[in-house]
Amino acid sequence: MVLLILNLAEYFANSKTIPVKDDKTTLDWWQTAVYYQIYPRSFKDSNGDGIGDLKGIEEKAEHFKDIGVDCVWLSPIFKSPMADFGYDISDYNAIDPVYGTMDDFVSLQKKLKSLGIKIIMDFVPNHSSDEHEWFKKSVEKIDPYTDYYIWRDGKCDTNNMRIPPNNWQSLFSNSAWTWNEQRGQYYLHQFDPKQPDLNYRNKELVKEMK
């Protein structure tokens, strides 16, 4: 019995892959990849302005290869007023100037691809910035943006004072509802008031996000 165990141990130690009974058990690349998460702002500054940027990341691409990285995970680099470190996106189709340009991003992609390294973006589709054009138009009830966000009428308490539609709390411990004077309604935000939640019951919004 001991001899059998030793023989099996030697077999697996000398095998590059462990045999499986069913090819369906093969894992996808993302299930076995080595990831390297980068917070661009504090990673590497290429132009001396004190803020990390895309060119700085590209300059370290060979380092990722040397340490066996399969995929770089970038924290938000989209255009943002930075109320929540880039998680409040004001334009999904633009790079925030503090990190560089779209050309810089394309250059980074090409460099990583040449080294066999994939790249994924840290992107939270739950909400946008309240400075996004969609939200501004939703406030003004300009179609098709009127219901791109979750709006509700308020209620009145026993003193006839306006209160939110319910007692939901945001993850930041305050009410999940903020009153918008211009529209005359409350909007929902699970995070900061500057991060209004998108309404995925709206088919036009779903098309936009795809």
Automatic annotation (TrEMBL):
EC number: 3.2.1.20
Keyword Signal: yes
InterPro entries membership: GH (IPR017853), GH13_cat_dom (IPR006047), O16G_dom_2 (IPR045857)
Entry keyword annotation includes GTP-binding: no
Any single biological process term in GO: carbohydrate metabolic process
Signal peptide: 1-15
Any Pfam family matching the protein: Alpha-amylase
Reaction(s) catalysed by this chain's protein: Hydrolysis of terminal, non-reducing (1->4)-linked alpha-D-glucose residues with release of alpha-D-glucose
Protein name: alpha-glucosidase
